[in-house]
What does this fold into?
Amino acid sequence: MTGVSSRAPYIPAPLSVVHAALRAAWVTPCDIVYDLGSGDGRVVVIAARDYCVRKAVGVEIDPVLVEVARAYARIYGVADRVEIIEGDFMEISLEDATLVYIYLYKSINEVLRPKLEAELQPGARVVTVDFPVPGWVPIYVKRLRDEADILRSVHVYIIGISDRHWSTRYAEITSTRELEAWLACSRKCGQRH
Ligand SMILES: C[S@@+](CC[C@H](N)C(=O)[O-])C[C@H]1O[C@@H](n2cnc3c(N)ncnc32)[C@H](O)[C@@H]1O
It folds into this structure.
């Protein structure tokens, strides 16, 4: 269990913001999506139901919200592709994630950053709601007004490009082959829609 610095309260993202975040990050049926701090499971259920992702994993520390999210996954018929892990996201491996959604505080994004850099593959995307990842350069920022007319923002990052160890990570990739493979995969999946 991590300390207070990686805890954030439960504040569900408006549905318009969830859709905007997933679309801004070019979600495709090839994706394995993680929501770190998944609350009532709305993000993973929407990712599975509306964007047909391969797998959607929510990680949530509150056991009541874990049960709510599992119930939503069953009700919306996506329990076969939605997994809700009860626990601290700092202790969960992210190695198979291709898209990570985060709606937490900026200070928590900062604590998470080294974990994301260490565990995500080059080409994986990270999308944050309202709060950027300090030290990273977004490749896309979308601003929108939610259902309550409140101004919200979505920041999209690509591992290997946005993170601050850009030159080292680029050397690891050796070419843009992984990124090209990912783009080809998205194009192929996009055609199936
Ligand atoms: C702002 S809410 C976001 C909920 C959902 N992702 C959404 O966008 O609607 C943050 C959630 O993260 C959970 N959380 C906070 N710290 C956590 C941690 N270290 N590990 C797992 N879940 C955590 C909280 O219980 C809460 O449900």
Summary: The chain has one domain: 12-192. Confidence is low (pLDDT under 50) at residues 167-175. Strands lie at 32-36, 55-60, 82-86, 99-102, 125-129, 140-145, 151-158. The chain has six helices and seven strands.
